[in-house]
Amino acid sequence: MGGELAKEYVDIPVNTSSLGAGTRSDYMSWTQGGNPAAFAADRDPLTGVFPGDFDGYIHTNKDKMDIDDETGYFSLEHMLEFSKLAVAFAVEQAGWSDKHTRGDDNKKLAW
User: Cα separations (Å) of 34 from 31, 88, 99?
Assistant: First the structure.
């Protein structure tokens, strides 16, 4: 699902893969509990030695917005694309429909 959403809603190249059972990530406890979840990364986490070919600053004290040098940087434009993907995922999971009307706002939700 994530790959299709990314290709539809973001304006950067998209590649999809699956992380193995031995991989540790926050989303895995959600999927193990039966909840839809996804993992998005700026690079392929399956290549190279842990942490793959991620930006070398990830999860270090240099993992900041003000980094701008030859070894790593923070891009607001790139973060915008990740934000668009997060919103698309939330909307898709909520079952949003373009057929919604204001009259639907008064309906009681069955939880």
Answer: 5, 20, 28
